[in-house]
Amino acid sequence: MQQTTVAKTVTYTGIGLHSGKSVTITLHPAPINSGIIFARTDLPGIPQVAAVAGNVTNAMRATTLESGVAKVFTVEHLLAAFYAMGIDNCLIEINSVEPPVADGSSLPFVRLLEEAGSVEQEALRNIIDVKEAQTIRVNDSFITIVPYDGFRITFTSINPHPMLGVQFGDYEINTETFVKEIASARTIGFMHEVKLLQDQGLALGGSLENVVVYDDETVLTPLRFSDELVRHKILDVVGDLALVGRIKGHVIAVKSSHAINTALAKKIIESCSK
User: In the annotation, is 77 catalytic?
Assistant: First the structure.
């Protein structure tokens, strides 16, 4: 299978979920073997950071990439779209610290990549074929990947909220399934967390337009799926494991988070380098 890049330059403008700042991203074609690169056009020298597991420096509430002065966070929804749409190489110019939240899902980025189109390049894809199980466990949460001929994610979400409870999702991750079943699932949030998050400088751009919001008993945002939470959790796994590159393996997760997902990404890279 050949590597791919976007066929033409496209642009999207919105606000960051956590930063609340206006931001524009511009996707450009990129050479073979370059991967997905973020270039901070708002900083002197336009420093770059690659979307690879080794550049993850924080995973609280969102995945942060950092290299020198180049830093971007909440990249997982955008990276999930790149993975699902089969784009291997792209230069993303970004004029703030965080990509647009859009509607809280990956679907706007899927549509952006559909607009951009794709072209094959004169180099083969490198596919990470998992040969033995790799597991990360933290308290009652875990994620593991086992050998599998394809890319599959099985996720169990457990949440004490009366409208959430236990949700289970099991999907073969390919372009068609991702676009139809996963891409439009949005980030969720809880009213009781809003002040705490904003005191930490987070969720400053969050609203009912880009987050599925729950109060103590009900949901304040019309749902797209009855199990939207677990579908979004699967979306996050796709985005976080995109930091490895193309993967063949079956991911099984219970209550997994960005921290555990990205720890698994790093472990997969370590196991393949031995």
Answer: no
